[in-house]
Design a protein that fits this description.
Length: 282
Amino acid sequence: MTRILALSSQVVRGHIGLSAICPTMAILGVDTLALPTTLLSNHPGHPHSAKAPVAVSDLRTMIAALRKNNWLDVDAVLTGYLPTAEHVAFAIETIEVIQSANLKRDIQIICDPVIGDDPKGRYIDQTAAVAIRSELLPRAHIVTPNRFELAFLAQCDVRSCADAVAAARTLKIPYVIATSIFDPLIGTVNMSISATETHIAAFQMQSAVPNGTGDTFAAIFCAHHIARAAPPCVAMGHATAALSSLVKASIGQPELAIVSAQNLWRDTQSADVTLWTSSANI
């Protein structure tokens, strides 16, 4: 069974962070080792919420115990919400520990750079955001930024698909899976960008969408790419189609209906979205 270590936030109620990643991956047949960087009662967008950051020293203790039990035999690492520069440094340490424990395997590193979004802007500490860009990103095989995050990582404006391609290629990452890129000629799309190809999946934007779509997209993408060996461009298409179906089933609800609507999104394929391929440049 495919096993992925995920580092992100976790909520008591709702589906964001690990609380979106774990059920999504379980539904798609992936076992998740979930390491929470922050505990919350619920998404802070609700009227009341409580938050308890997890100390890096406690996280190191957990990883040490897992290593002593020989339980770090994972296929990939997915990094998500890392609230401080210390958490970013810990994520890098963890990647190095896992790679040293799995010398005979190529462990995939997927970075979901949870830095901010439109229109809210940045919502983690500036030093953490810079550490993600300068220290964590170079260790990733795949990065999954939204438009705001891609612009921050590449330190340039992103206002079209062509901008996204140019920005992504400055990162020197094998694959950039850019989400929610608005292009005035195409609309809102997700993109898989490599050094030589660009694949684009168009989808219909919805209003009143619950939080957690970025975490869920990353989880679906990882499940298809790591567990089912789909190429990144195909996994991006599957994730776009599945998330579109899930969002439609969740409109008007306080949280994403990941579990209750699983029959509507679990087997959705990339054929259910408009998907096309471009050469090196748009």
